[in-house]
Design brief:
CATH architecture: Sandwich
Number of helices: 10
Shape: globular
Mean pLDDT: 92
Largest sheet: 7 strands, mixed
Strand content: 15-25%
Low-confidence stretches: 296-303
CATH topology: Jelly Rolls
Structural class: alpha+beta
CATH class: Mainly Beta
Order of helices and strands: EHEHHEHHEEEHEEEEHHHEEH
CATH superfamily: q2cbj1_9rhob like domain
Number of domains: 1
Distance between the termini: 66 Å
Helix content: 25-40%
Length: about 300
């Protein structure tokens, strides 16, 4: 018998959601997105998905094997879908969980990455892993570094590759293992693995230390999902969101989306610290609002 993940809805009490997340390392939030949001994101990304090449060379061959030849990956989704940037990345429930999990350790959290992962027919099980391994150089013990999610844009079933989650693994003592050791070392028993089966618009939300991986797709229909994660404002992000969503595009988004993308100053002066990410000794998000951030208005054209 497989393990299970506690389920909530988009209107559930955030305290209850976070208590379960802290205990088990993962929760499922059903109905996180309205179905019209799901439809709009699917439509806005259709052309990018069609263009995506699973065999495109990546920066490291390990990543090629990690995603496999049957998975289409679209990166920088907030810069491709306004609906994603506004209604998914800034979803009130996700940001409320971030407030609880991440804000105790930073002045402001930020988007880590927003990627589209379409696991096609024939996709094998992804290596089980921990997302926070990308910051393996952060000394231990450390605070929670990341809040991650996989959001369903079609119904997720065990057969089409629903995300596999190992509840409680965020508290396992081997969190210090390197990514290579995680992939080659002892694996969880089958009965320790839960499957995030859920309807479109739902999300499995999990800690950066929770062991998980995409499932195998044994059907003839692609499994469409988004990997959306947030991290502390003083960490470097997996994706360079300033290039994926450059200033001229970010300027067209609501201020909250600009802040989550990382354009706002990380100001810890009030917490006894310093500041990170300023431009001309000002908050970049204010420069965006005044139309002063970008190649045409930077004042550097004559250098």
């Amino acid at each position: 018998m497989s393990a299970t993940i506690e389920r909530f809805t988009a209107t559930s009490d955030t305290n209850a959601v976070c208590a379960a997340l802290e205990l088990d390392g993962a929760v499922i939030v059903e109905g996180l997105l309205d179905l019209d949001v799901v439809e709009r994101v699917n439509d806005e990304l259709e052309a990018a998905i069609d263009r995506a090449d699973p065999n495109e060379a990546l920066f490291n061959p390990v990543m090629q094997a990690f995603h496999g030849p049957c998975t289409k990956q679209v990166t920088g989704v907030p810069g491709l879908s306004r609906t994603f940037a506004v209604d998914v990345m800034c979803n009130p429930m996700l940001l409320a969980i971030c407030d609880r999990i991440l804000l105790p350790s930073c002045a402001r959290y930020q988007l880590n990455l927003g990627h589209w992962l379409q696991r096609g027919p024939g996709a094998d099980e992804q290596w089980l892993h921990r997302d926070e391994a990308v910051w393996s150089d952060v000394p231990r013990p450390h605070p929670e570094l990341q809040l991650a999610s996989v959001i369903a844009f079609v119904d997720f079933t065990r057969e089409n590759g629903a995300t596999r989650i190992v509840p409680g693994s965020h508290r396992w003592p081997d969190r210090q293992l390197s990514p290579a050791e995680q992939m080659s070392g002892p694996q969880p028993d089958p009965d320790q693995i839960a499957y995030a089966e859920m309807p479109a618009g739902s999300a499995v939300v999990y800690s950066g230390g929770t062991i998980h991986g995409g499932g195998a797709n044994s059907t003839d229909i692609p499994r469409r999902g988004a990997h959306l994660s947030y991290t502390l404002g003083w960490l470097r992000t997996e994706e360079n969101n300033y290039l994926s969503t450059p200033p001229e595009l970010a300027a067209t988004l609501p201020r909250r989306a600009q802040e989550v993308l990382g354009y706002a100053l990380h100001d810890s002066l009030g917490r006894g610290g310093g500041y990170l990410g300023m431009v001309r000794m000002q908050d970049p998000v204010e420069l965006l609002a005044r139309g002063e951030l970008g190649t045409a208005t930077s004042g550097l054209g004559g250098l």
